[in-house]
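Input set for joint prediction.
Command: fold jointly, output tokens.
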Amino acid sequence: MARLDLQRPVVVTGGAGAIGSVLVRELLAKGAEVRVLDNFSSGRADHLPGGGHAAHLSVHRVDIRHQPEVARAVRGAGSVFHLAANPDIRLGTEEPSLDLEHGTVGTFHVLEAARRAEVPFVAFSSSSVVYGLPDTFPTPEDYGPLIPQSLYGASKLASEALLGAYAHTYGLATTIYRFANIIGPTMTHGVIFDFFEKLRADPARLEVLGDGRQSKSWLRTEDCVSAMLVAAEKGRGPVDVYNLGTDDQVSVKEIAEKVVAARGGTARIEYTGGHQGWAGDIPVQLLDIARIRGLGWAPRWNSREAVDRTITELAARSA
Amino acid sequence: MARLDLQRPVVVTGGAGAIGSVLVRELLAKGAEVRVLDNFSSGRADHLPGGGHAAHLSVHRVDIRHQPEVARAVRGAGSVFHLAANPDIRLGTEEPSLDLEHGTVGTFHVLEAARRAEVPFVAFSSSSVVYGLPDTFPTPEDYGPLIPQSLYGASKLASEALLGAYAHTYGLATTIYRFANIIGPTMTHGVIFDFFEKLRADPARLEVLGDGRQSKSWLRTEDCVSAMLVAAEKGRGPVDVYNLGTDDQVSVKEIAEKVVAARGGTARIEYTGGHQGWAGDIPVQLLDIARIRGLGWAPRWNSREAVDRTITELAARSA
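tokens >
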């Protein structure tokens, strides 16, 4: 099956986002011509490289909900990395149509654009949240049943289902990444980012949602992107599904304590209590990454190292 | 958790359809007040009971794609059976937005209407096609991975995911039915129906898509509806998933030969060849029905009996 083709333009939706922008830099470094599609709701222009890359990088302000805009931007491309989505699980709980429109319908528009433009390869950033509350750890890719706990998770599973349908009905080659918690200096949401924001607003007190015992696997954006590229190059499709994560976990309590320490160690940590941080939170997460390791990839940093590195970066920025 | 409540109005979307209309009759027989929502694209008014039931049955011509119409019809109900969808897998291949709009978005509208109207229980007609091409037979409900082969299948899995999200985020109780091939006298599509239609058009020749060795499990509409009601009454939710089928299979070849025999035995059967009948066809299907049997339900007719009975009925009608 067709795979990632660096000789033809590569589209990255959500390309100005926390993960997308790192992927874009890596693709440019490999000599690819890259088209970024982003609505800049959470993506940021200053995440993208300027100057020397101008000839190989084009940036399109596109709302993924509008099929014609997506179709125009995809035409002539050889591959699509589809990362655009609402990035925040909790926003979807407040506004239930958000993940349907930006997630599921957005993915449909990308796939339909690829089909019509005869783009042979589409890769998609799904999430470990498709596993819902699994009872098997580490959780393998063939785990079932898949019962998402959030509208965000529902849109990820719905999007995966659309990739499967397009692959088998129209002959597209597809790769699906199920991400652990991806962290790094470009992130604009997530628990570590939130802790720094909260301490900026009130340096004396850090509120932690839940009991702090939520324990998850954390992967650096650089590692995430290197795994994405390995899978996109070596997959055999029609539909390849890969967990992307690390083999260890770090608790939210440990992260809270480390962030407080990095900010001077004076803030009081207060837990709201309860097993879940919020409705739809997945309190325990650990992915089986044997499949992506089987392609020769390994994470450069484990969860603890990834957390420490990210806290150091954010602390330096907020100092 | 809340379950089916026959003391308050019961909404049946797709209630004029092949399965919905049988469910509506059964609910009326149990004394429930029933509201049918249907766009009458494949549903038929003459499937619904008239006369004596008028006081307990209201019929609403509603397009599931229009949120306000759905919301109006759901208000004040105690339970929803959501069956409305594009019923034909192959139509979705020709028009890729069909299953997204009538399936996934339609389900979202039903769930959102239920949430806003505080309807505590929603049951949904999913399908065995969510299993894609499984390698385990009979296939249990916790089988993974779930990689649908068609846009119809993608919309079923997307809808299941939305039910999971609404159940866990907003406290709805939900039941998900994964149907085998449901057959009976009210059906307006599917292979048995199609064979009769083809022979009506050309009595000398019956074209069979694929090599005829596709082998599936067939469940009568009456059995399907009795299982739906048992699961809706006895489930413990938030999300109950039940396979509904039989323990045996009948091949498409056997069905073709039986239909030809029922029509006088003179037609020549021609196979188009290939493992699948069409892109997205699931050639082998057998569901593990231990879970629904565990609630005390059993099919009255096995697959062979269900096929024979249905052929006899359709032959009598076409004679």
